[in-house]
Amino acid sequence: MADIVLRVGSRTEQGVRPNNEDCYVVDLDHNLFLVADGMGGQERGEMASGMAAEIIPKIVGDLLAKCVCADMAVRDALAEANLAIIDAGRSQPAGRRMGTTTVLALHHDQKCYVAGVGDSRAYVIRGDVVEQLTVDHSVAQALVLSGALTPEEARHSPYQHVLHKFLGCTNMVEGAEVIPFSPQPGDRLLLGSDGLTNHISDEDMREGARRFKDPQEWADVLVKLALSRGSRDNVTCVVIAFDGV
């Protein structure tokens, strides 16, 4: 397998929101990358996404040091973060849930492990092929999977942003699905909050991956593009470039 060098770009913008509940991690010690989009309003959302950003890299690093396999390390870290956020939310007023979406990627032993909870997304761009690796855990997407809505109807559904799975969810029975893939030289992996991904297209990703060789430059352009197209949410992304040696 060809040796690969990782280069990373990242950007977050508050946008028109009164505060930024998004958070991201670029952990080059463990090659772990994460985007979290907090829910619950102001301090609660910021606390939840901040907890995810603090807890998950630490647990993944600890488990990898104990030779736990990478996919299990990712699953266990998400489960621990979920329990910690639930516990922290017990002090919040009744009816004001605290939670966060999270999408992460771990590059370990020449493979990449991706997992998502909520509606922050991961895309891999390989040549002209754009593949969404994660599944949105929204009620609208669940209705698409059941055949009750078409994908087009789901985009305009009031349930598009109603999540049934996120960190801080007390009834999350199934843990996160971990998607492994073997990166190839030239691949680009994009992690983004919905404030970004709701406003960019597959063609934007194809064109951007070709045009911008510097992942930081591309991350800056993507965030500015989402804001210019009317995103009214916080906008955050991490771009990982897998380059040949």
Helices and strands, with pairings:
Blueprint: E1 4-13, E2 22-27, E3 32-39, H1 42-65, H2 70-89, E4 99-108, E5 111-117, E6 121-126, E7 129-132, H3 139-146, H4 151-155, E8 178-181, E9 188-192, H5 194-197, H6 202-211, H7 215-228, E10 235-244
Antiparallel strand pairs: 1-10, 2-3, 3-4, 4-5, 5-8, 6-7, 6-9, 9-10
Helix pairs in contact: 1-2
From the structure above, extract its key features.
five-stranded antiparallel sheet, globular, 29% strand, alpha+beta, 245 residues, 10 strands
**Tell me, what's the shape?**
globular
| End-to-end separation | 12 Å
What is the class in the CATH system? Alpha Beta
Assign the CATH superfamily. PPM-type phosphatase domain
Low-confidence stretches: none
Helix fraction bin: 25-40%
- Any idea of the CATH topology? Phosphatase 2c, domain 1
Question: Which CATH-level-2 architecture?
Answer: 4-Layer Sandwich
Name the beta content range: 25-35%
Number of helices: 7
Order of helices and strands: EEEHHEEEEHHEEHHHE
* Domains, number: 1
